[in-house]
Design a protein that fits this description.
Chain lengths: 273, 119
């Protein structure tokens, strides 16, 4: 039965045999009770086992049909066994029918579990991505930067806004730079989200500068008729940082020749009041 | 009836809202504050809302109105210490208080008023 859908690249033979043996033991014990209701208490060990199997398959990258084949591959040996033990035609038909119904139900149950596991995986990854992709970094005393990566939808804007405002309170920063270099497209909705964040920061007493506006995005913004007049905008993060330093009364000066070694040179300037 | 105290500091009036605002209290503050600005001919008003946890559109509008009225009486208003949740709420309500100046805390707000008084 292992030969039907063995994926030796994803799991080894011994593991598969162990799972099959465990399943057969649990299945036999449940089937002996005569109950055909999958949600009955006697089937609990089988359900738990299938839960484990399908969740591990989902993580290992099996396809749904490969996972369901774990159950459906049982049909052939079971039918062979039935044909060997039951001799009269009527008995054979009814036994085969019962076995088919049972195995189909189990197979569908496995697919359902597989689907659920995959969905949980996707939701978890979405959450992780959301948390990962909204860091707020301190560039200098009183200057925060928010490098935005990826598409800005309402849910992400909410997280971004909350993170930024909280950091403004924590650090007492009066200037925040929103860098949209990593935002692939800016439509009216994204622009509206950005403006909302800027307005909220302003209400708390912090000024926002939007930087990292690529030429195409500048064109799109104007064509869409988005009004960014109330916000300071700069082409690059460096330009925005220069503005922020000027507003906070700081300046960067060179104190010596650039250190030798090109790529490994340290920052050669330092902020001076 | 409870009242929000208005403190005079030099040429400025300091209002610190320490309790949850309800509508009548907001209107009372509007009355008292305009009265005090006229009496003291104050040049600046600083409203500290760092303890304010909840706002609705009425409170938001009243804050905007107070700022506009102070400007008419030649006093500049700075709202300081707004909490993140309050800021998000106001923005979601579509009120970005365009005419009101804001600062992070009382210290920065005072500096802002002092700077505009010397200008």
């Amino acid at each position: 039965m292992q030969n039907v859908a063995t994926r030796r690249d994803l799991m080894n033979e011994a593991e598969l045999q162990r799972q099959s043996r465990e399943f057969l033991t649990a299945f036999t014990r449940a089937a002996e009770s005569g109950s055909t209701d999958l949600h009955a208490a006697v089937w609990t060990p089988v359900r738990e086992l299938l839960q484990r199997v399908s969740s591990s398959r989902a993580q290992q990258g099996f396809s749904p049909s490969e996972t369901a084949t774990f159950i459906f591959s049982l049909k052939q040996p079971i039918f062979t066994q039935i044909r060997r033990t039951v001799k009269d035609a009527d008995g054979l038909a009814s036994e085969t029918w019962a076995a088919t119904t049972m195995l189909d139900a189990l197979g569908l149950y496995t697919t359902e579990l597989f689907q659920k596991n995959r969905e949980e995986l996707i939701i978890r990854q979405q959450q992780e991505m959301m948390e990962l992709s909204t860091p707020v970094v301190t560039l200098s005393e009183g200057v925060l930067a928010l490098p935005l990566i990826g598409t800005l939808d309402s849910a992400r804007t909410q997280v971004v806004m909350e993170n930024l405002l909280q950091r403004i309170v924590d650090t007492g920063s009066a200037i925040a730079i929103l860098d949209i270099t990593g935002v692939p497209t800016v439509d009216t909705l994204v622009a509206q989200h950005l403006l909302k964040t800027v307005a909220a920061a302003r209400l708390m007493g912090a000024d926002c500068i939007i930087s990292g506006i690529r030429p195409q995005i500048a064109q799109t913004i104007v064509h869409l008729g988005v009004d960014l007049n109330t916000v300071t905008t700069k082409a690059t993060l460096a330009d925005a940082f220069a503005v922020a330093l000027r507003r906070t009364g700081l300046a960067i000066t060179r104190v010596g020749p650039p250190a030798a070694g090109g790529a490994r040179s340290r920052a050669d300037g330092e902020a001076k009041a | 009836m409870e009242r929000i105290p208005i403190l005079k500091m030099g040429e400025c009036l300091l209002v610190s809202i320490q309790i949850d605002m309800h509508d009548r209290l907001a209107l009372q503050l509007q009355d008292d504050l305009t009265q005090r600005i006229a009496e003291t001919s104050a040049r600046g008003v600083l409203i500290d809302i760092s303890a304010l946890e909840m706002v609705d559109s009425f409170i938001g509008r009243t804050l905007g109105n107070i700022a506009a009225m102070s400007r008419v009486l030649d006093a500049e208003t700075v709202v300081v210490g707004m909490r993140p949740a309050v800021a998000i709420t106001l923005v979601e309500l579509g009120m970005s208080l365009q005419g009101v100046r804001t600062a992070l805390d009382v210290e920065k707000g005072m500096a802002m008023l002092a700077a505009s008084a010397h200008a």
